[in-house]
Amino acid sequence: MVKHVQVICLCVSNTAVLFAEQYYWAINLGEKLRMSRCNASVFVIVVILISLIVGCGGGGGGTGSTPPPADTTGPSITTEPVSKANGTAIDFIGGQMKIAANVADDSGVKAVIAIVTKPDSTKLPVTMSGSGAYSGTFDADLNLGDTGKEYKIVITATDDLNNVSTSNLTLTIPPPDTPPGPPG
Question: Lowest CB count within 10 Å: 10, 92, 100, 109, which one?
Fold first, then answer.
């Protein structure tokens, strides 16, 4: 509807300008403007339409720009390697492990949580706290087996507009005969 009003206003204003130019030249050339009843009616209508055009003002007072697209992107997640909470090297003993990630989003971060899937498929939720840099801890079991025990970790971040992002990590608790790696 607004576009139709703008088109009508444009057409009427062009007609009014043409009529005004003819009237101007008629007066400046010293000619007498003879208005028939039809011309007088057109003149009155044009004057009324000109006053309506002034009020037309572009159809609604908007800025004319397109609104920005809605945010549909989840937070960015940058993970750090899983480490022992006390800073020592990960070994067969397991113990308390630290999950850490930097999470950011223009609309704000509502929640960050990690789901740890243990080697026996048990799922353990870990609430991660912080602002920008988030972390949480969980207990990894002692590994007395012959092979490494793998923990799968999925970090899920939700922004204030409920957009979601995930990031995956893996932690392996080595068997006892494997020498420990460097501290985390």
Answer: 10
The answer to whether the CB of 119 falls within 8 A of the CB of 149 is: yes
pTM above 0.70, yes or no: no
What pLDDT score does 3 carry?
42
- Asked if residues 73 and 164 have their Cβ atoms less than 8 Å apart, the reply is no
Q: Could you give the C-alpha distances from 66 to 58, 62, 169, in angstroms and in order?
A: 15, 10, 40
Cβ(89)–Cβ(178) below 8 Å: no
Reported as a single tens digit per residue, the pLDDT across 114-127 is: 999 999 999 999 99
Q: Is the pLDDT of residue 65 over 90?
A: no
Give the span between the Cα atoms of 125 and 129, in whole angstroms.
Answer: 13
**Per-residue pLDDT band at 17 (split at 50, 70, 90):** very low
CA 2 – CA 89 distance, rounded (Å): 68
d(CA 9, CA 15): 10
Break the chain into its structural domains and give their ranges.
Answer: 2-56, 76-173
Class of domain 76-173: mainly beta
The full DSSP string for 146-181 is SS-EEEEEEEEEEETT--EEEEEEEEEE--TTSPP-
